[in-house]
Each structure stands twice: as structure tokens, then as C-alpha cells.
Backbone:
């Protein structure tokens, strides 16, 4: 059973296009995240949602818009893609706050985005 | 400013020997530390964690040591196996932090 899944796994697109990456978790977690792993291999937090509400928004361009239709899904929509957006994007989720082990995050397999 | 540092980009160890991966942090507010393992084309997988109230946590072949005064933690793998070859990320969290801060990772290669 896949705990955190992302689609697509690979995404190749032209500059200027709009694209979405989907994430779903079946762990019953309330909190979901998007991370970006750039060419320098750093994993950096982009967004965090708790129970469908945005709680963290790092300094990410507003071309990136997360959307959480329910607490099991957190999708990432990117407008007007730029070359610098090429990276691997990871979705993650963690336990509801107050249930213990809240800081352990479980990651999806990643989506490799290539902007040409 | 890197708050979590893994200064060794890579480490090579022979099968059966001990692997020691190091991590330093600068933020004294961090009180929970994790190690993740990542294979190519996969997401990071949680390996082991330690709270700042402990100085050691063990799970099978994996042991994490925390030295709060030095702001240093290490992951020991013994005995190392070829299947342990992966990138290992150190991560930290703390009271008031809603997410994890990751190090840059150390690539471990265990040769037969």
C-alpha cells in the first residue's frame, strides 16, 4: 500500500506553460508539505498545510500555488514555468499535532520537473 | 545560512565495517533530530530519530548519538551492508517549528 503518492513521476515541459503535480496520502495525517530539491541537492520546504489550511509559505514565487481539496490531498500548481523551476519536488505528510511523533514526515517518491 | 550541516558529501565503507555519518546544527532551538535514507529516484525514507532529552537511540543496526553541547549528532550503522548504499539526510525540528530543516546529505557507498 502506497503511503504518500505523487503524480506524475516525471514532467517535461516548455517555459511559460502551467502544470500541476498531485499528491495523496493514505496515512490519515493532517499535515502535508511540499519540498523542492534543487541542483545543489538541498531539500527545502515550500509549503505546509494542516487540515487544508496553509501554515507555512516560505519565500516561494506566487507562481506556485498549493491547493488542498481535502486533508488527504495537496496539489501543487505552477504557472508560467521558468528554467529555474527545474528540480525534484517532494510531497510529505506527518501525524496530526498532539498525537506524538508529529515531526516525523513521510515522503512521496518525488516528481522530477524539467523545464526546457 | 545552513542550520543543519553535513560536511562530508560522501563516505565509502567496506561491507561489515561501521559507517559513521555526521551532522552538525547551529540552532539551539532544535530539539528533535531525524535521519532519512534516500535511494535514487525515490523519496526520503525515515530511518531513526532522537529527542533532545536522550543522547542515544538504537534500532537494530542503526544508532543515533546526540551531543547537545557540541550541537552534533551522528548515525552509526554496524555492520554496514551493500544495501545501505544511499544518500543519508540529517534533519532537525524544534518547538514552534512546523517543519524540518534538512542537511545537504551524505552519500554512503558500502562495497562488498
Residues:
Amino acid at each position: 500500500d502506497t503511503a504518500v503518492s505523487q503524480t506524475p513521476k516525471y514532467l517535461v515541459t516548455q517555459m511559460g506553460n502551467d502544470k500541476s503535480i498531485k499528491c495523496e496520502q493514505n496515512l490519515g495525517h493532517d499535515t502535508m508539505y511540499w519540498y523542492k530539491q534543487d541542483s545543489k541537492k538541498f531539500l527545502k520546504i515550500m509549503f505546509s498545510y494542516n487540515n487544508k489550511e496553509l501554515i507555512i509559505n516560505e519565500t516561494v514565487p506566487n507562481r506556485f500555488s498549493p491547493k488542498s481539496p481535502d486533508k488527504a490531498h495537496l496539489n501543487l500548481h505552477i504557472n508560467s514555468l521558468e528554467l529555474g523551476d527545474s528540480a525534484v519536488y517532494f510531497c510529505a505528510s506527518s501525524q496530526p499535532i498532539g498525537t506524538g511523533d508529529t515531526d516525523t514526515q513521510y515522503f512521496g517518491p518525488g516528481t522530477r520537473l524539467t523545464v526546457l | 545560512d545552513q542550520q543543519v550541516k553535513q560536511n562530508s558529501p560522501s563516505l565509502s565503507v567496506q561491507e561489515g565495517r561501521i559507517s559513521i555519518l555526521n551532522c552538525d546544527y547551529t540552532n539551539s532551538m532544535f530539539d528533535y533530530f531525524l535521519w532519512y535514507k534516500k535511494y535514487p529516484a525515490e523519496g526520503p525514507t525515515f530511518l531513526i530519530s532522537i529527542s533532545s532529552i536522550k543522547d542515544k537511540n538504537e534500532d537494530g543496526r542503526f544508532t543515533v548519538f546526540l551531543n547537545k553541547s557540541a550541537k552534533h549528532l551522528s548515525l552509526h550503522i554496524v555492520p554496514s551492508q551493500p544495501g545501505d548504499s544511499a544518500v543519508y539526510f540529517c534533519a532537525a525540528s524544534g518547538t514552534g517549528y512546523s517543519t524540518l530543516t534538512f542537511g545537504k546529505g551524505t552519500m554512503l557507498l558500502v562495497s562488498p
Observations:
- The mean pLDDT of chain B is 93.
- The first strand of chain B starts at residue 4 and ends at 5.
